[in-house]
Amino acid sequence: MRNTHKYKIGLLWQGAIDLNKNYRYSKTYQLSFENKPAIIGSADATFHGDANLYNPEELLLSALASCHMMSFFYLCSKEKIKIESYQDEPIGFLKVNANGSGQFEEVILQPNIKTYEENLKKVVLLFEQANEYCFIARSCNFKIKYLPKISN
Predict the structure, then answer these.
(1) Coil vs helix vs strand at 13
(2) Strand partners, 94
């Protein structure tokens, strides 16, 4: 039997449709999770959403960056490597096609990592290996670049 985990969320559209504006739909939604606070989201403002709310593109970057970080920490824990701090500012590039569809073409993870480890090469190697463990990265069909700055 496979070692499979099931994830389930709720999605509720909280918008409306404006028939006077060529059937423009508002893009506000609520994501609900069992025993966790809900998240209110919208489309990116570029796509007629609310710029004050989380959008799916930001949430994808968040999932990818945090999953990669946790995969890196998993490998560090196996090697008994202490990390002092980890801060990332991922950047994603979304291409919009002529027909209105689109896709991410590339994401760049660029964390600043401080470690207590004297052997920085070992930390760099573990960071590179983390992409092989990251569930989200392994599920993506776009290029992911890794540009870490590692210091002690």
Answers:
(1) strand
(2) 104
Domain count, the chain: 2
pLDDT in tens, 76-108: 999 999 999 999 999 999 999 999 999 999 999
Number of alpha carbons in the 13 Å side-chain half-sphere of residue 100: 2
67 in the same domain as 36: no
List, in sequence order, the alpha helices (H) in the chain.
56-79, 120-133, 135-139
Residue 24 has pLDDT above 90, yes or no: no
Confidence of residue 1 (pLDDT cuts 50, 70, 90): low
- H/E/C letters for each residue in 120-146? HHHHHHHHHHHHHHCHHHHHCCCEEEE
